[in-house]
Design brief:
CATH architecture of the domain at 71-234: 3-Layer(aba) Sandwich
Radius of gyration: 27 Å
Largest sheet: 6 strands, mixed
Order of helices and strands: HHEEEEEHEEEHE
Structural class: alpha/beta
CATH topology of the domain at 71-234: Rossmann fold
Mean pLDDT: 83
CATH superfamily of the domain at 71-234: ABC-type transport auxiliary lipoprotein component
Number of strands: 9
Helix content: 25-40%
Shape: globular
CATH class of the domain at 71-234: Alpha Beta
Strand content: 25-35%
Number of helices: 4
């Protein structure tokens, strides 16, 4: 690295020439030197502020506001996610296909926890059901268990957010058909910048939860403009 360039960015404190006839305090010079080094390091170590993001979208009323709650609980299990995406900083793909780590843009909690929380919130709104994380189920309580395995979690700058997941919904102590499905959810991004990417991924998680809710209601999960269904199969009891 160019020492001249470093000197311009973080100049060292100039030394004071000795003056004849003056006596220096023996410990003053080390203290002043330490203070100068500390100040220089503080200036060199200045960095951009860190921003934190969540996948849980703004609070919204339940779809069936005013109606009776569901006769079952939901149990949204911890979400499995690839190591490549499961980083504290945002991993964003650029136009040339390379992957960039944005160290000043971070998730507010581990990405698997963000996904689990966002899916739980969306399913509670869709179904009017409570999560067992909030209410401990009694013996023999009716529960729908939800498991999610994310194969791809993509943030593509100025282009799209994509969520590719295999998921299972299974009834416990209640009637219903368990399903194993794979969905690819794609949300376009028309604007540049991180906030637009986060908003798109929030919509993708909500769309995936809507597909899961359809399966829990006993409806065949169907694709849509942003949701591609890659197949479902019945789970054995």
């Amino acid at each position: 690295m160019n020492r001249r360039l470093l000197g311009r960015v973080c100049p060292s404190s100039p030394s004071t020439p000795s003056q004849p006839g003056r006596t220096r305090a023996p410990r003053l010079r080390p203290v002043l030197a330490l203070a100068a080094v500390s100040a220089a390091l503080a200036g060199c170590g200045a960095s951009a502020p860190v921003h934190y993001y969540t996948l849980q979208g703004p609070a919204a009323p339940a779809a069936g506001a005013g109606a009776a709650g569901a006769a079952y609980l939901i149990d949204v299990q911890p979400v499995s996610i690839t190591t490549q995406a499961d980083q504290p900083q945002l991993m964003v793909r650029t136009g040339d296909g390379s992957l960039s780590a944005l160290y000043s843009e971070r998730w507010s909690s581990p990405l698997g926890d963000e996904l689990r929380g966002a899916l739980s919130d969306a399913l509670k709104r869709e179904l009017g059901a409570l999560d067992v994380q909030m209410v401990k189920p009694g013996p023999g309580a009716a529960v729908w268990r939800v498991q999610t395995d994310v194969q791809r979690f993509e943030l593509v700058s100025g282009s799209m957010a994509q969520l590719d997941a295999t998921w299972r919904v299974r009834p416990v102590n209640t009637k219903g058909a368990g399903l194993l499905c794979r969905s690819v959810v794609t949300e376009t991004v028309a604007e540049e910048g991180v906030p637009a990417l986060i908003a798109a991924q929030q919509r993708a998680v909500a769309a995936l939860a809507g597909t899961m809710a359809s399966a829990i209601r006993g409806q065949a999960p169907a694709g849509s403009a942003g949701v591609q269904m890659l197949g479902c199969s019945a789970l054995k009891d």
